[in-house]
């Protein structure tokens, strides 16, 4: 757990007061923020406050005080819906409700993120034990909860892995159909497979690449964007110390940008990050600058990751007693939306 102190608590309280005075973003400006990890932590079922945690008011206020206007909120599907095709757990839903209310009350949009890698209790979505219909049922139950909320975004799933794009697409379309049938017009974010990496977007898969297959996403409202991730280390996983493939990562994002422009799509960089070292600081700033420069196709970004329980986790941007983490310092000047084009964020006008 990150260190705490009386001065740090006073600092957080001051930020909370400031956050309540900042204007709410709605979805009018490009989204720039952070993941707030913790609700996806621990083994199942877990105990709230002991093995997993939702973000504190101080953490949300800190991010808002830095000028951010969005948080991506990971949580576990199994905790919110302990049995497939069954009602949502009231206690877990209340925790999500409380977090959404707290964040949006500060002017932060919230991206709801079932952080499950396209699995339910170890079974792949689309399989006999976790069919697409069950995935659609989950979204049919959750979607009406925040229907019509411009400041609540539905990310279908975090980082589908070990499944082809062709096998993933039916679940995507079933979930979107369920969301729309439930009366929710919220923006939906659609991940690709192979951890939805920009570096893997055009990679050959059985049945076609993400770029080929996800051209067939079906949304009656056409209110969706792609959720893209891109780390900077040797295998683009974010688990290695050195950010020694910054050039390749940026090139992958540039290729994604061209594809988005050519196909009339938009995307959000939902995860990127790096260790506390100079090559990573430079890479993070370069990546954010790239996304900021194309508000015509990129809705924005969320760095990985804030969170009250990170402690000495090397990718953390959670503040410590000494102040800001260096990764956040590296991108701090790029958080504010400065130009009229950035503030208008034409990518959002497509939604």
Task: Briefly summarize what is shown.
Helix content is 35%, strand content 14%. It is an alpha/beta fold and 351 residues long.
Q: What would your notes on this structure say?
A:
There is one protein chain. This protein has helices at 6-19, 57-65, 77-80, 90-105, 132-142, 165-181, 210-213, 246-263, 278-292, 326-331, 340-344, 346-349, and strands spanning 31-36, 70-75, 109-114, 119-120, 123-124, 152-155, 188-191, 224-229, 267-271, 298-306. Residues 1-25 have low confidence and may be disordered. The longest helix is centred in the last third of the chain and has 18 residues, at 246-263. With 351 residues, the chain is an alpha/beta fold.
Approximate strand percentage: 5-15%
Q: Could you give the distance between the termini?
A: 39 Å
Shape: globular
Helix content: 25-40%
Number of domains: 1
CATH topology: TIM Barrel
| Category by helix and strand content | alpha/beta
Which architecture would the CATH scheme give at its second level?
Alpha-Beta Barrel
Largest sheet geometry: 8 strands, parallel, barrel
Q: Which whole number gives the mean pLDDT?
A: 92
What strand order characterises the main sheet? 1-2-3-6-7-8-9-10
Q: Considering the protein shown, what is the CATH homologous superfamily?
A: Glycosidases
User: What's the alpha carbon Rg, rounded to whole Å?
Assistant: 19 Å
Order of helices and strands: HEHEHHEEEHEHEHEHEHEHHH
Low-pLDDT segments, ≥5 res: 1-25
Query: What's the CATH C level?
Result: Alpha Beta
Supply the number of helical segments: 12
| Beta-strand segment tally | 10
